[in-house]
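Q: I'm writing up a methods section and want to include an example of the input and output format. Could you take the sequence below and give the corresponding predicted structure tokens, formatted cleanly so I can copy it straight into the document?
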Amino acid sequence: MDCIHLTGIRSYGYTGFLPEEQALGQWFEVDVKLWLDLSKPAKTDNIEDTIDYRQIISLVQNLLKTSKFALVERLAGAIADGILEDQEGINQVQVILSKPTAPIPDFSGRISIELTRSKV
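A: Here is the clean output for your methods example:
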């Protein structure tokens, strides 16, 4: 199976366990890996034979901006489910959702959730 990677999708959102995270918000970054058959567009060089990356990026950014979940695990799941429901031809998706500045004292790293979902 072939893959398309979309990396560094950033948006400001309001998901988080702490009340201030849902009120003040924070930056999120998402990478997605899409499994699909790219044999036809590889032969035809026709954009209609592949997926529209802009739609996926827009879907991810919209979910980041508008969702208010307590857990980033839930947000990552909503992104994966949204891509699979919205896009024909994608058989499997991997989502890596990162909080670059998680509000944890004395922690300057990033928190990332990685999950993979397939069409049933």
